Amino acid sequence: MNYPSKLVEDAVNEISRLPGIGKKSALRLALHLLGQEVEDVTELTKSLIALRQKTVYCKKCHTISDTDVCSICKSPKRNESLICVVEEVPDLLAIENTAQYNGLYHVLGGVISPIEGISPSDLNIDSLLDRTQNGEVKEVILALNATMEGDTTAFYLTKKLRKQGIRVSGIARGVPIGSELEYTDEITLGRSIAKRIMFD
Amino acid sequence: MNYPSKLVEDAVNEISRLPGIGKKSALRLALHLLGQEVEDVTELTKSLIALRQKTVYCKKCHTISDTDVCSICKSPKRNESLICVVEEVPDLLAIENTAQYNGLYHVLGGVISPIEGISPSDLNIDSLLDRTQNGEVKEVILALNATMEGDTTAFYLTKKLRKQGIRVSGIARGVPIGSELEYTDEITLGRSIAKRIMFD
Fold first, then answer.
1. Shortest CB distance from B64 goes to which of A13, A34, A47?
2. CA–CA dist B101, B104 (Å, integer)
3. At what angle do helices A6-15 and B38-54 cross, to 10 degrees?
4. What does this protein do (chains A, B) (predicted)?
5. Higher pLDDT among residues A4 and B27, named by residue
6. For a Cys-Cys bond, which of B30, B85, B145, B168 suits B11, CB 3.0-4.6 Å?
7. CATH number of A76-170
8. What is the average per-residue pLDDT within A4-26?
9. Distance between A97 CA and the closest CA of chain B, angstroms
C-alpha cells in the first residue's frame, strides 16, 4: 500500500509487526493515535518502554514481576507447601483471577516438545526441582494444557517429583459448568464419565 | 484482573485503550513486547511519537502528510482538473491503491449527520468549494459511502458544486467483480439492473 506520509507508513510497519495485527488494523490504530492528544500517545509509549526495560522475571517462580522476587512469592499470606505449575504467564493470571488458589506458582516457560526441539533443559524445570527439594513443599499441582506435549511434560515432572516424595496432582478435567452435555465434545464427556467423582 | 506486575498492568491499561483491543489482547501484546529486544520496542514507540508529533494534515486536501502540502497535491503528474471527495483518509488510501485514479483528492473528515450533530461547517466543505472556485477544476467525483448520511452529504455537495458550474459524478455501484449474482444482496442487485450500463 502507498501512504502519502512516510511517518504513517513507518508507524504502520512497526505496529503490524505485533502478533495478530495486520496492515489494515495497523493503519486504523495509527489513524486513531493521530487523533489523540500528544500526552496520551506519550503515556502509551512510556508505559511500553517501562514495561520492556523494567519488568523482570521472578527468580523463584519465573513470572513477570517488578522486583527480583514477585509479589506472590513474597506474600506471607500464601501457602508455601503448594506449588501450581503452569506453562506460561497468562495461565498463572487466569488461575489468580479465580481467587480460588492460595499457593505459589512455577512458570515452566513452555512444554517438552521433541518436534519443536524443546527439551526439559530448555524449560524452568531444574529450578522447580530445586524449590521442591527443601522439604517445605508438600504438593505440586500440574495445570498444563491437555495437549500431547502438556501430557508428556506432566508425565516427566510426575516421575521427577515423586522421587523427591512430593505429592503430584492435576487440575480436574470435565464438562465446564454452564455447558450442556449435548454440546460437549466427546473426549471431554467420555473422560468426565470415566473419571467421575463419587458423591459418598 | 490482578497482575503480579504494576508495569504490566499499566501497559495493559494503556494498550487496551486502543480501539478494538480488549484486556486479553492487550495482555498478549504486552507479553509479546516483553519477549522482544529493547531496540525493537524503542523503534515502535519512536515511530508512534513521530507519527503523532510530526504528521500534519495537508492544507489543500486534508489528508495525512509529512509536509504542509501532501505529495499527491504537490505531484506534477496529477490531473488537477479532477477532485475525488472521500469521507476519511483510509478511503483515499484504498482508492490510491487501485492505481486507477490520477486526479487530486479532498478529505471531508466525515459526513453530514444531524443525529450526531455534524453539520456542513464541521466538515472540510468550505475549503473544497474554495478549491473548485478557481476555474481549474472541471469535475468532482463523490466517493462517499452509500449510507443515509453519505447520500445526504452527496446531495448537499452536488447542489453547491453545480452552482459553481462543476460537473459532479459518483463512483459506480453494482455487483462486485468476482461476486455471484445469486449471493449479491438485493439492494445492490436491484440497483445494478436499474442503473445498468448500455453496451452500445
1. A34
2. 9
3. 140
4. May play a role in DNA repair. It seems to be involved in an RecBC-independent recombinational process of DNA repair. It may act with RecF and RecO.
5. B27
6. B30
7. 3.40.1360.10
8. 92
9. 6
Domain B79-170 has CATH 3.40.1360.10: yes
pLDDT digits over A101-124, tens only? Answer: 999 999 999 999 999 999 999 999
Which residue blocks in chain A are alpha helix, DSSP H?
A: 6-15, 23-34, 38-54, 71-74, 89-98, 126-131, 148-163, 186-194
For residue B106, give the amino acid letter. Answer: H
- How many helices and strands (H and E) does chain B possess? 8, 6
- Report the top-level CATH class of A6-54: mainly alpha
- The ipTM is 0.77
Q: Where in chain B is the domain with CATH 3.40.1360.10?
A: 79-170
A131 pLDDT higher than 90: yes
Identify the closest residue of chain B to A37 by CA–CA distance. Answer: B52
* pLDDT computed for residue B64 by the predictor: 92
A contacts of B10 (beta carbons < 8 Å): 47, 50-51
A16: nearest CA partner in chain B: B44
Side chain identity, residue B153? T
CB of A104 within 8 A of CB of A72?
yes
Residue A174's pLDDT band (cuts 50, 70, 90): confident
Domain with CATH 3.40.1360.10 in chain A: 76-170
* Run of H or E residues at B189: helix B186-194
DSSP B118: B
